[in-house]
Description:
Largest sheet: 5 strands, antiparallel
Radius of gyration: 24 Å
Helix content: 25-40%
Distance between the termini: 33 Å
Structural class: alpha+beta
Number of helices: 16
Shape: globular
Oligomer: single chain
Low-confidence stretches: 30-84, 185-234, 448-519
Strand content: 5-15%
Amino acid sequence: MHQNLLALLWKTTLLTSLLAIAASLPGVANAANPASTAASETVATEKPVEMLLADDHSGDDSDDSMNDMDDMDDMNSDDDMDADASLPDAVATAVIESIAETENIEVSSLRILEAQQQNWPNGCLGLEAAGVGCTQAIVPGWIVVATNSEQVWVYRTNATGSNVAYDEAVSQTVRTRIVRTTETRTSTSSSTSGSSTAVAGSSSSSSTTVSGSSSSTSGSMSSGSTTSSSSSSSATISASQLEAMASRISFSDVSSNYWARGFITRLAALEIIRGFPDGSYRPAEAVTRAQFAAMINKAFERTMVREAVSFSDVSSSYWAYSAIRRAYSMGFLNASGGSFNPTARLTRLDILVSLARGLGYTSVTTSRSVDSILSVYSDAASIPSEYRVLIAALTERGLMVNYPNTNRLELTRVATRSETAAYLYQSLVSINRVEAISSSYIVNSVSGSMTNTSTDMEMEADDDMEMEMETDDDMEMEGGKKKPNCNQGIGNGAEGCDPGNSAPRGGSNDETGRTPGSGKP
Length: 521
């Protein structure tokens, strides 16, 4: 959001007002239980005030900064604060891990800013969802504020951290206040200096939406945004801008001539996907429905075409809960029987059908017939009849990327992170969010050949990396039969993968016996 977000938070005491806002919302037990209010304590878990204010002691703001520092010191020395009211490590860890998993952010970049003890009215922590049962008993817990210096998240937890839930309403409220406060302060400063530039409302061409969301006219910022824009529409990022951003991205397992490097690094630069703390991207790993929902949530800001629903197998505390609801509401992912199957792995067909439906690519736009367009594929006969038009529509619009053979769809094969990155990037190209890049594996629907260019041409010597993925990484031998490698972990990364510095929570993604593609797209 803003480089000096933390300094801004302290100088305007937004954290203190945030907790007051949270306490006044429905679902907070203290509002109905005055006796418990006296026991409610605010805990400042991290107060590097001098460091936070050091970068912003210019002009008239310097006096205000010092006054705010004094105010914060006064709050910290409040005699009424219970010395024993400290946020348990388990609660802090649970919140940090949940944010890292949901937002695809490294744990090391996150920190707890503030925490307050709170009594919740039920087992859902006051965040009831339709169709989800909640135990009707007062639950002691915490309201916790965390940040990565660019964004703020507010969470509700129980006393032990075994139940944590993202409070979207309060998070959006504080983000809006941060943006508005920044606009006000910048406007005041600009008037004094004779400059008319505003931080959040800048019309500069360098201000653009880069991760699938844009700021609204009210100044509130979506959780997927990284840069504020005065326009409500997404802007196209030039090839040179994105290439410069992508050039600073590197992964230990994505070499300079890896076939999907151009797609992966550019999406990483847009913060739609991320790597892992160990420096890897793990391009050969499979993608689950929950992981894909998280990617969709960051990549696209589409009109909701249906009401969000609750799924019996996705609790409100699940790491991808919000992303799944939005991906469903936007029409990208479907469900049946009240279940979402978040850990079911997606096939290439699942991914493609999802993108076609979500983007509205349900018909061809040229005079060519569906059969003519699909004739570029040697295995076109394997396309289910109900999806032939969708695959043709995607092919026509340049979304199809096939490695190693552009003329083979292999729709039943489990989709990998590298393939999914390629599909997502081409989807953004199709809606003019980014400019096209060169790749020899983008299907040319006119000629049926590879799109031969030089920018991202891959060396044959490096093809062994992906071929090894197909023969070793995605498949393992068991009793003479090949079966998909399921050891991906469950929901431990922002796209559901284990971040690399902690043990996976649970077994394999198909531990319940699901087969690849069993989840409906």
